[in-house]
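Morning!

This is the sequence you dropped in the shared folder:
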Amino acid sequence: MRTDTNDSWLARALALPEPEDDTARRILDAALEQFTLLGVRRSSVDDVAKRAGVSRVTVYRRFQTKDRLVEETLLRELSRFFARLDAAVAGLPTMKERVIEGFAVSLRHTRAHPLFGGMLRLEPEVVLPYLTVQGGSSLNATVEYLTGHLRRAQQVEGRPDEDPRPVAELMVRVAVSFLLNPSSCIEMEDAEQARNFARRYLAPLLDA
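The structure's back. Tokens below.
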């Protein structure tokens, strides 16, 4: 799968609208369903086309390659994830509270997501490189997203004007670690346990 810069991924994920073209929406919906059921490696453009009720030529006209189709499917789900996360924390008054709730929501959403969670279960060998050694674009896009929230909190809450990027990266890497290997002496089976962990270990980073 081709990769873009993290700024490109972030900008596209945050600003990505639903396609105006009904056929493109159907293809992306079909790709999500297909990749969820069988994984990316075992799915072909023909499979997606059949599920969408269109020809393979139609899929290629809209998305050019299978890699591009996979990328656009992932970007749309990342965009939806950011929107859900924003909605979950928007009403909370402080950055500490938003970090705590955001961590819990992120874990719950990603584990339960049919594509992200499903791909980790179906073909971890395909997903893991994009969360580890080849994870620059998606990981850094998420770090940039959180960094923006931390910067705004600095201004609103009168926090010291320091670069929040290291704190954002630590938080994202901790979350990814629990997603990749949930087995731990730290109990993280439900949202309240995730909140307790974030309250004790992540929220204090804001004052570090």
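Headline: The two ends are 38 Å apart (CA to CA).

More detail when I'm at my desk.
O.
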